[in-house]
Design brief:
This protein is α/β, with parallel strands linked by helices and about 325 residues long. It contains eleven helices and eleven strands. It has three domains: about 80 residues, Winged helix-like DNA-binding domain superfamily/Winged helix DNA-binding domain (Arc Repressor Mutant, subunit A, Orthogonal Bundle); about 110 residues, 3-Layer(aba) Sandwich (D-Maltodextrin-Binding Protein, domain 2); about 100 residues, Periplasmic binding protein-like II (D-Maltodextrin-Binding Protein, domain 2). Strand 1 and strand 2 form a beta hairpin.
């Protein structure tokens, strides 16, 4: 398999193994054997061994190693476009073969944006698997970007900012709005009253977006504090009494340890999308899994709108009969 013709190469002494080229591409894109290994699901030593083997077969050095990581040599840069063309051609062949597969036996891979959405989907997937015992599901909960054109996943559930659209090469459908609401941990609600000195907001690691959300809230005067990298860790910080938080209603409204602020500031800020590659639209397994996911999210759609809430979530000042504001319609 010819993937390039490095001008600096010596005597080429064998065929190129596609798996070695995959490792070359991952390392070229990440610059780190550990990051490349994480992308491929292998150890960093495997990446290093594969790349060294490829360099040996091509009799040329493809990377310079330094303290900042791995940098492509001139030969490596020359090889890169050819390797990417081969990658795309093989991906097209794989998608084409998979796209016309009418069998319900085999693997379908799904990636989901967070554990809370996963908890809505997995029970429905379990029912689908019970109906089709030959179906194997690979399920990843990960917010990072998956390349569906390379079949890193067959179906992706992703949250995109309101008004955004997915890449043109994918088929996408909005399943539900993502509505954000302001919450406080019930255990610390009295101490963390927004009118009290010392009360603050807890920030996600994207501080710029967190600050914009605070600026648009009913309490923009409260400072932003900390930096937390996930919905789970932000919720944990709230349980510990570190401050007020903003979470999607599908998370906060079902958490018995949290309740909405008196001024909850519900805002539709994003949408939950179901994405898949058009080459797989007729694949029986993917189509069945797609329908399964859509049905599961539809069953919980009120949670995304913020209309299905409990008295505990509302808090005593907002509970029905307390003279406060009722659930948002």
């Amino acid at each position: 398999m010819a993937v390039g013709s490095p001008s600096t190469a010596g005597c080429y002494n064998g065929s190129v193994d596609w798996d070695d080229v995959r490792h070359f591409l991952a390392l070229a894109r990440t610059g780190s054997v550990r990051a490349a290994g994480a992308c491929l699901g292998v150890s960093h030593s495997t990446v290093a061994r594969r790349v060294e083997g490829l360099e040996s077969r091509l009799s040329t050095r493809l990377f310079d190693r330094n303290r900042d990581g791995y940098m492509l040599t001139e030969a490596g840069r020359e090889m890169l476009p050819g390797a990417e063309r081969v990658e795309e051609e093989l991906s097209q062949i794989e998608r084409g073969l998979a796209g016309g597969d009418a069998r319900m036996d085999g693997t379908v891979s799904l990636t989901c944006c967070d554990a809370f959405v996963s908890s809505m989907v997995i029970p429905a997937v379990a029912e689908l698997c019970a109906q089709h015992p030959g179906l194997d599901v690979a399920f990843a909960t990960d917010s990072r970007s998956f390349d569906l054109s390379k079949r890193e996943a067959d179906i992706a559930l992703r949250i995109l900012a309101r008004g955004s659209t997915p890449p043109e090469m994918l088929i996408g459908r909005v399943l539900a709005p993502v509505t954000v609401c302001s919450y406080v941990a019930i255990e610390h609600a009295e101490r963390l009253d927004p009118s009290r000195e010392g009360t603050r907001w807890i920030a996600f690691d994207d501080r710029k977006t967190s600050q914009l959300m605070v600026d648009g809230s009913s309490h923009p005067e409260l400072p932003l504090w900390g930096s937390f990298g996930s919905i789970e860790s932000v919720a944990q910080a709230a349980y510990a009494g570190l401050g007020l938080i903003m979470l999607p209603t599908y998370v906060g409204d079902t958490d018995a340890r949290l309740r909405r602020l008196e001024q909850p500031d519900l805002r539709h800020v994003a949408d939950l999308w179901l994405l898949y590659h058009p080459d797989l639209r007729l694949n029986a397994r993917v189509r069945a899994a797609r329908n399964c996911v859509e049905t599961a999210i539809c069953a919980h759609v009120q949670r995304f709108h913020g209309t299905r809430i409990t008295d505990a979530t509302l808090g005593p000042e907002l509970a029905p009969g307390a003279g406060g504001v009722g659930p948002v319609g």
